[in-house]
């Protein structure tokens, strides 16, 4: 069974067809990158998978069940989390409280269980464990908006993981980072996504090639190649359409 499966998916906005017949399979436990030039439709594809958009035609399934007519909330409850740039929203909350919101959303949605003292302790323990996972324990009382950029992205990862997702969608997790910060983030993402399914949009080819098991290349709303990093690197069409330009 695949974690994410798209079959003949199209998406139109008015008269422009942005996604044009995409077939894509992401296996359970796989780390899969979606690459392609600006405007290729990568964010649109993410929005289709996470339920923010409905396909114009075609089918999407998550863990073997049809999902393309479900709301983003239902899809989230089915274990799909997508990262958002939340630190601008929660700039005045502490790091601890930001992650606590995510943990409470998860517990609250599932059990409405966070009202007792014991459950409060469980929430606090979850938050501390997540902060430790993303190396932010020492920053717990700092305001989210005061974190340096790479730590803000780590905080977003913690909130995404607070939802205990099986399938994680990350949109450019290393954008705007220095080489060292990107390397740290890759290590973090690799560790935190072990045993889960990851679909990641990323422009940095070093990140893509070091992190992902397979890569799909989207150009003008169509997937022109899918394969292991070494196959993609030597694919003539990919080099012509994208990598050749992207790498130089
Ligand atoms: N809601 C919308 N209404 C109309 N057009 C849209 C909408 N969302 C996206 N588009 C168009 O779809 C095309 C693909 O955009 P999208 O953001 O999916 O590309 P992308 O591959 O993620 O690009 P980038 O790498 O620059 O983020 C663009 O031409 C964009 O203008």
Automatic annotation (TrEMBL):
Keywords: ATP-binding, Nucleotide-binding, Transport. PROSITE patterns: ABC_TRANSPORTER_2. SUPFAM superfamilies: P-loop containing nucleoside triphosphate hydrolases. InterPro entries: AAA+_ATPase, ABC_AA/LPS_Transport, ABC_transporter-like_ATP-bd, P-loop_NTPase. Gene3D superfamilies: P-loop containing nucleotide triphosphate hydrolases (3.40.50.300). Residues 4-245 form the ABC transporter domain. Involved in beta-(1-->2)glucan export. Transmembrane domains (TMD) form a pore in the inner membrane and the ATP-binding domain (NBD) is responsible for energy generation. This is ABC transporter domain-containing protein. The lineage of its organism: Bacteria, Pseudomonadati, Pseudomonadota, Alphaproteobacteria, Hyphomicrobiales.
């Amino acid at each position: 069974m695949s974690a994410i499966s798209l079959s003949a998916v199209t998406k139109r906005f008015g008269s422009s067809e942005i996604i044009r017949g995409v077939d894509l399979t992401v296996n359970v436990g796989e780390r899969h990158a979606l690459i392609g030039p600006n405007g290729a439709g990568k964010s649109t594809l993410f929005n289709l998978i996470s339920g923010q958009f409905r396909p114009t035609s075609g089918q999407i399934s998550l863990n073997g069940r049809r999902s393309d007519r479900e709301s983003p909330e239902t899809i989230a409850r089915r274990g799909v989390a997508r990262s958002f740039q939340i630190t601008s929203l929660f700039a005045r909350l502490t790091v601890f409280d930001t992650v606590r919101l995510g943990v409470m959303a998860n517990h609250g949605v599932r059990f409405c269980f966070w009202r007792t003292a014991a459950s409060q302790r469980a929430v606090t323990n979850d938050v501390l464990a997540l902060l430790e996972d993303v190396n932010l324990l020492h920053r717990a009382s700092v305001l989210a908006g005061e974190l340096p950029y790479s730590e803000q992205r780590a905080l977003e990862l913690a909130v995404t993981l607070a939802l205990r997702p099986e399938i994680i969608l990350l949109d450019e997790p290393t954008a705007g980072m220095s080489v060292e910060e990107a390397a740290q983030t890759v290590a973090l993402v690799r560790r935190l996504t072990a045993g889960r399914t990851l679909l990641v949009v990323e422009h940095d080819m070093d990140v893509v090639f070091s992190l992902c098991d397979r890569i799909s290349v989207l150009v003008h709303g169509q997937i022109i190649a899918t394969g292991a990093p070494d196959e993609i690197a030597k694919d003539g069409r990919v080099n012509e359409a994208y990598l050749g330009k992207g790498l130089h």
